[in-house]
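User: Structure with magnesium ion, tokens only please.
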Amino acid sequence: MKFDGQVPVHVAIVMDGNGRWANARGLTRVEGHRAGEAALMDVIEGAIEAGVKYLTVFAFSTENWKRSPEEVKFLMNYNREVLRRRRDELDGWNVRIRWAGRRPKLWPTVIDELLTAEKLTSKNKGLTFTMAVNYGSRIEIVDAINQMLEDSKSGKIKGSVTEKTVQKYLLTKDLPDVDLFIRSSGEQRISNFLLWQSAYAEFVFLDVLWPDFSRKHLFEAIQQYAKRNRRFGGAVDKPKKAKPTTR
Ligand code: IPE
Ligand code: IPE
Ligand code: MG
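Assistant:
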């Protein structure tokens, strides 16, 4: 796949719309989550094909605990199962698996599976694939502030805090800023995903429910990204040549 323009280094995706996909088919929400696995694998392969270096996906938010106990239980078990089932395949694709998320509330067996996958693939040099499980950006920033306060008291942080210091305390400390932020399902919101990291990201919202998503949609988003003019606050003065006036 060739793109006219730059391929984003870091792509973040809010994989949304599983429940609606299932309910529209007369199925329960969890069947939608099940159907999302194939979409994710295709998108990971597509990201590798496109030359994306970092792919970060939102799998479970710190707010998703509000869902029914059945759905939460399913999602915990399912995240663990998918990791176990797919880690060797991903390892074979030279993918480095990473976890971004908080420990509190998260099932220890899910944490174990995430850490096992991280360890197994830690030497891989291909795509860095980060799963955001029990992730929420505001609490991530609050955790970072509290840790910085502690480290300041103990003398580990000397002087004042800079943007670089904050970056070092985030759950995504080893990832570059997000270039392209994609959300499926038609919703146009961030839902507390990578707030600090997406300060200058380009946003693409696609009207496709996650189980119907494939690398084709990823490529479409990259194509849109490639056409954008990223200025980061800067500006170029280029007045159009005035047309000669005719009388
Ligand atoms: C995204 O799909 C998956 C998770 C949040 C785990 P949803 O479950 O949010 O599906 P919709 O948005 O309700 O359709
Ligand atoms: C965001 O989707 C979380 C994940 C995709 C894991 P939600 O479906 O939870 O977000 P809202 O509730 O529509 O904002
Ligand atoms: Mg949703």
